[in-house]
Design goal:
It contains ten helices and no strands. By secondary structure, it is mostly helical.
Length: 203
């Protein structure tokens, strides 16, 4: 009869193997989807060094795998943005936040494209909530300082930033703008949109 210690070791070893397998699959899926949003599950499994049966043992559907990749990518992005200096002038802080965000959005835009094919829009928006909260917090500080307009809800202004960032990624992918120009274009557009309203002109 196996000892208690021996019987306890086997489940722990299996759990460790499962964690390594999941990590390998997520790493492979991130790399593969970043290159090609339509990459096959078979190619992801081969890149991860596992069989399709093993992959489907951890992620029952392609959508579930894409969801896990998107979630991990956003967590990575949130950590990067958390290290971005957003102190000082709100307009300057917005420019720094845009620059940091663009590096991630541009690098992983194909993962977002894959997510749009597999996941509901509300799920994609929900995964982005931590980042949107950072943007809303900065907008709120800018509104209190008088740098940003207060006649529109901060949530709507954050949605504007979110939408513009991803629109820029699509334009960069299509060659309509240069990727290196995007942060400046995004920042200029947002600062113009966020500036306090000066009233309506009369004819």
């Amino acid at each position: 009869m196996p000892s208690t210690a021996a019987s306890g070791t086997a489940p722990r070893a299996r759990r460790a193997d499962a964690r390594r397998s999941i990590a390998a699959i997520l790493d492979a899926a991130t790399d593969c989807l970043a290159r090609d949003p339509e990459v096959s599950i078979a190619d992801i499994a081969a890149t991860a060094g596992v069989g399709r049966i093993t992959l489907y043992g951890h992620f029952k559907t392609r959508a579930e795998l894409v969801d896990a990749v998107l979630t991990r990518t956003i967590e990575h992005a949130d950590a990067i943005l958390g290290a971005t200096d957003t102190n000082g002038d709100p307009g300057d802080a917005l420019a720094r936040l845009v620059a940091s965000s663009w590096q991630i959005v541009h690098q992983f835009r194909n993962i977002l494209f894959a997510a749009h094919r597999e996941l509901p829009a509300e799920r994609i928006r929900g995964v982005h909530d931590p980042i949107l909260r950072r943007v809303q917090s900065l907008i709120g500080r800018g509104q209190r300082a008088g740098t940003f307009r207060t006649d529109l809800p901060r949530q709507w202004l954050a949605t504007t930033a979110f939408s513009l960032m991803h629109a820029a990624a699509e334009d960069a992918a299509a060659g309509r703008i240069k990727p290196g120009d995007a942060p400046g274009l995004i920042t200029a557009t947002l600062l113009a949109a966020f500036s306090p309203a000066t009233g309506h002109r009369t004819a």
